[in-house]
Amino acid sequence: MSATRRVPPKTGPRSEAARADAHLVHLLTQMLRIRRFEEQCVELYSRSAIRGFLHLGIGEEACAVGVMEALGPEDAVVATYREHGHALARGISMRATMAELEGKLEGASRGRGGSMHIFDAPSRFFGGNAIVGGGLPLALGLALADHLAKRQRVTACFFGDGAVAEGEFHETMNLASLWHLPVLFCCENNLYAMGTAIERAQAETDLTLKAASYRMPAWEVDGMDVVAGEKTAPTAAEAVRAGGGPHFVEMRTYRFRAHSMYDPDRYRAREEIERWRERDPIPALTEELKARGLLDDAGLERIEAEVAAEIRDAVAFADAGALEDVADLERFVVSEKGGGQ
Ligand SMILES: Cc1ncc(C[n+]2csc(CCOP(=O)(O)OP(=O)(O)O)c2C)c(N)n1
Ligand SMILES: [Mg+2]
């Protein structure tokens, strides 16, 4: 036994406050990791290191970061094709994420999924899904399994406003509510589904009312404010975990860039984009931290430098990665564990 005197952990309001302050810096760091990672993706795309479809979530970082903080390692995450930020916030390494985007064997999905299908079983990150609304029934299935096995877990299912117009959304919402399944529905309402504004596609644009019609508790949250998201998400997640059935969070957000790299973005007024840019969640939190004396210019530079180093390392790792051997292409199409699974 060690003779060292154990120092009791500091408790009480002061250490609580210090933890809360450090946590805010952590939230900013997470959003910066995602933002700078995706900015790097633009560059990699222009030199064809990343090919195919690429959907960036620049402007929407607060949604993924806010919700992910409310989840534990035993919980599950299902996301869309705009999921780089979700993967990083969930804890998938930047190396594995970048290698996946470059289609390399070292990627989270062996380079088979690319940008839209990041999948990582150890972190219970069940994709990345190119089908609008496609993740919803998957989330339902994960939650049904937990429910039947009496495991107190949450499945967080991210989807866009466009998915709300899909039949899969309504089927999933209905069954989740009817069977009282532990799903946290996280709707990232960025007001557009490709080039279609929500008012042109949906008869009811208050998406929380859709949840209410399935008797599901629902919140509307400012998706540009990571702190607001972070306040609501734990309450909702804990209610789900405690057996309260499915809950729904609508996060009002905005993507600053086009739908994908192929989209000329001619359907949105420049003034609208500029108005939303003024609400950019990263400068907003940076200013708040500075105003409260929790961060200064040197501190911010330090975070930026660490993030830049992490990105440099991830790109070098991905660039040096291998393409999967053609001889292996038929592997993993069916389980290698044998039948009876
Ligand atoms: C079932 C299906 N229909 C159409 C498409 C083509 N498509 C790709 S993204 C997209 C828009 C989806 O918008 P939203 O759900 O709001 O997500 P966002 O891109 O805004 O994040 C559409 C229609 C698709 N991938 N899958
Ligand atoms: Mg959308």
Give descriptors for this structure:
341 residues, alpha/beta, Rossmann fold, two-stranded antiparallel sheet, 12 helices, globular, binds thiamine diphosphate, binds magnesium ion
Nutshell version of this structure?
This protein has 341 residues and is an alpha/beta fold. It has a single domain (27-319), classed as 3-Layer(aba) Sandwich (Rossmann fold).
Description:
The protein contains 12 helices and 7 strands. The model is unreliable at about 1-5 (pLDDT under 50). The protein starts with 12 loop residues before the first helix and ends in a 22-residue tail after the last helix. It is globular, with a radius of gyration of 21 Å. By secondary structure, the chain is an alpha/beta fold. The chain has a 5-stranded parallel beta sheet with strand order 1-2-3-7-6, with helices on both faces. A two-stranded antiparallel sheet has the order 4-5. Helix 6 (about 165-180) links the parallel strand 2 (about 155-160) and strand 3. Helices cover about 45% and strands about 10% of the residues. The chain has one domain (about 25-320): Rossmann fold. Bound molecules: thiamine diphosphate and magnesium ion (MG). Thiamine diphosphate binds near residues 82, 132 and 259. The site of magnesium ion has 6 residues, from strand 4.
